[in-house]
Amino acid sequence: MGRLDRPRLRGTALGTALRLWNPVMKRLLASRFHWPWSRWFLLISWTGRKTGRDYQTPVSYVRHDHDLLITTGDAWWRYLVGGAEVRVWFGGRRQRATAEPVLDEEESLALHARMFVDQPLFAVLAGLSRAADRDQITRSIRAGRTLIRVRLV
Hints:
Number of domains: 1
Distance between the termini: 40 Å
Oligomer: single chain
Radius of gyration: 15 Å
Strand order of the largest sheet: 2-1-5-6-7-4-3
CATH topology: Pnp Oxidase, Chain A
Number of strands: 7
Order of helices and strands: HEEEEEEHHHE
Structural class: alpha+beta
CATH class: Mainly Beta
């Protein structure tokens, strides 16, 4: 079973590496030393609906029209269902934005394909052997990979 069938990072070697790297990446993305990291990564922050607690995670992104596209296999995106205000450190600046998961499978498939073709490394990290392989992307989406659309305000 690979990343296609189990997109969650928790409990994997990559997940452990990212857990150790994320605090460093958070500081880099929110500092004046954000470049070159901010070409591929941004820092997204949101407030938990039940707890009111602030959460923050670095994520990879791709620009698409006026939106930023993020993909994840972890469950934090559920805080964003129905749309949510978020804060992003993007290009060295903190900005307000709205974020919402793309739950329609066909739209998610099309946007994932676009993202993976634009950034083939993201496809490799997601476990795809070919960036534009619709069957592999569909399999990954059905296993729990979710795309989030972020719109800067």
